[in-house]
Write a structure and sequence with these properties.
Helix 1 (3-18) runs parallel beside helix 4 (112-134). This protein is mainly alpha-helical. It starts with a helix and ends in a 9-residue tail after the last helix. The chain contains six helices and two strands.
Length: 198
Amino acid sequence: MDIQELDRRAVELSTSIVATVTPDQLRLPTPCAEWDLGALLAHMTVQHHGFARAVAGERTEIADWHPTPIDDDPVGLYRKAADRVISSFAAAGALERMTYLPEIRDGVTVPGRVAMRFHFVDYVVHSWDVAVALGAEFEAADDMLDAGLVVAAQVPDDDASRQPGMAFGPKLELAEAPEGGKLDRLLTVLGRSPRWPN
């Protein structure tokens, strides 16, 4: 699994979808129940900055990961953050560098390649979140979905990991994905209903 390349493609996919957002759409609901589209984009933007700093070797604090409003220029600010995380992940030594992630339960230190896997699966799913909030089509390449399923299977499915405010909700039954496609399976494993908002 070339996680640097996969993550770059996931981020670029998200950027192409975010590029279509207009100011009047920022209050749209999203599959992330507590966030409208503006709040989701603010979260996605600060996460890029947080992961970029962490993989560069900085020891961030939890406050560094708290989103701030980006309504004045959501597309431009998102693009800058996306460019930053792609550059950070591509830097020499990024795969091996020990990376502190304070948002993970109790804070953990993991090799950069593991942090990139967290980031990658998050942005495949968040790309879908933004697309469906906009009522747009969403397509991810098969190899991205295959890799996403591998990473998603490693996400703990316990109360501490899947509570409100965490990245993913409790795993849903396969009945939520009656067609059984890779995207549907990925979404249900990570607590998203492929049929949102129904």
